[in-house]
Amino acid sequence: MSKTIIITGGAGFIGSHVVRLFATKYPEYKIVNLDKLTYAGNLENLKDIDRLPNYEFVKADITDAESIRKIFAQYKPDGVIHLAAESHVDRSIANPMEFINTNIIGTVVLLNAAREIWGDNFDGKRFYHISTDEVYGSLGKTGFFTETTGYDPRSPYSSSKASSDHLVRAYFHTYKLPVVVSNCSNNYGANQFPEKLIPLSINNIKNNKQIPIYGKGENIRDWLYVIDHARAIDVIYHEGKTGETYNIGGNNEWTNIDLIHLLCKIMDKKLNRSAGTSEKLITFVKDRAGHDLRYAIDSSKLQRELGWKPSLQFEEGLEKTVDWYLANEEWLNNVVSGTYEKYYEKQYTQR
Ligand code: NAD
Ligand code: DAU
User: Fold this and answer.
1) Which of 19, 83, 229, 334 has minimal Cβ neighbours within 10 Å of its Cβ?
2) Whose CA is nearest to atom 1 of ligand 1?
3) Which atom of ligand 1 is nearest to the CA of 82?
4) Counting ligands in written order, which one lies closest to the CA of residue 226?
């Protein structure tokens, strides 16, 4: 193998797409998926590639410094692509501490392990930290986040991600650790846990349950197909400049209510329901505390310098996403029922 890359959070939504892309596109790399398998981590996401000879899964918690040190000593990675995180804003509002531990402490544990294994020889080495556009705060009706927009996080989740971004950059400036950071907008696609707006709504519409819309549904997000995010991560890992930050976004802004109207139309068609059936499920509920109004990414640096651009129109991506959820009923039922969590508990605590 020419290179070993540890991908943290590889059993999660975005991580599984990144693992698949790297393991299949680069058979000469050894890809180590390091994941704790929290409620959001699911090895079912990778069952199509888990027998590849260049793929390995290691169950570990990034906050456990001793285990992480041992894993780094064993695999001697050339690269780390760090996606492991607590990722859901509503859970961060209910329980901030998990977010501080995993997103901040866990990131520092990984930075320390990389420093220890690499010493002063950074040849061919890279620590790539995956972050979010939420660190920039909330926009009004106009403007875009650029790489130089000041940080202004407003939820425990975005604050913990902002903190981890600062620490990653501090290790670059202080210890010359070869880091690169990207900040991406909202992802959608297959394998997203059905607590996030799009998969939650698909699941509820399918089961004739209410679609809960926070506030008036006027908040705006910039949606990017998850495979386009994985493609951007590939380009930035290989061609991004050390110490730099790249914004990734879909240039695809939707108010939540318009998005849900579009989704309802697609679902009616796919489920052979008469037009307007799914819309009746829309229910306006209490707003999220501190709900950011608008996110919008300017990804021109990435497009100009590294030649990346999104490949899919939103309508096409959303239709593909709906098709995937309708075709993968067992996956959906398992994650909703928690069956897979119980399975992993049994499987891994017996070793
Ligand atoms: P996810 O919640 O689907 O997956 C997170 C993964 O991390 C899971 O597999 C989980 O088991 C693992 N994990 C959690 N805590 C861990 C720990 N202590 N040790 C080891 N593994 C642990 O998240 P996602 O939506 O795929 O997001 C992945 C990354 O991308 C996160 O860093 C997130 O902040 C960032 N991001 C997400 C989005 C988005 O729209 N989902 C957008 C921009 C950036
Ligand atoms: O912008 C990138 C971020 O996008 C990532 O860093 C986060 O990990 C990811 O979870 C996502 O955060 P959001 O809070 O934007 O995503 P979520 O799907 O939770 O919500 C999208 C919008 O929909 C938001 O305005 C809140 C609203 N919403 C969400 C849920 C779950 C509802 O109206 N009803 C809901 O039930």
Assistant:
1) 334
2) 12
3) 32
4) 1
Number of H helices and E strands in the chain, helices first, is 13, 12
The parent domain of residue 153 ranges over 3-193+223-254+292-315
The reply to whether ligand 2 has any atom less than 6 angstroms from the CB of 256 is yes
The enclosing H or E element of 36 equals none
In a domain, 162, yes or no: yes
Say if residue 265 is exposed, middle or buried (CB neighbours under 10 Å; 0-12, 13-18, 19+).
middle
Q: How far apart are CA 319 and CA 296, in angstroms?
A: 22
> Quick one: which atom of ligand 1 is closest to the CA of 62?
19
Choosing from 35, 134, 147, 222, which is the catalytic residue?
A: 134
If you measure from the C-alpha of residue 70 to the centroid of ligand 2, how many angstroms do you get, rounded to a whole number?
Answer: 36
How many domains, in total, are found in the chain?
1
Is residue 54 in a domain? yes
- Give pLDDT tens digits along the chain (351 positions): 899 999 999 999 999 999 999 999 999 999 999 999 999 999 999 999 999 999 999 999 999 999 999 999 999 999 999 999 999 999 999 999 999 999 999 999 999 999 999 999 999 999 999 999 999 999 999 999 999 999 999 999 999 999 999 999 999 999 999 999 999 999 999 999 999 999 999 999 999 999 999 999 999 999 999 999 999 999 999 999 999 999 999 999 999 999 999 999 999 999 999 999 999 999 999 999 999 999 999 999 999 999 999 999 999 999 999 999 999 999 999 998 877 677 667 766 654
CATH number at residue 73: 3.40.50.720
In a domain, residue 71? The reply is: yes
Residues 270, 193 contacting (CB under 8 angstroms): no
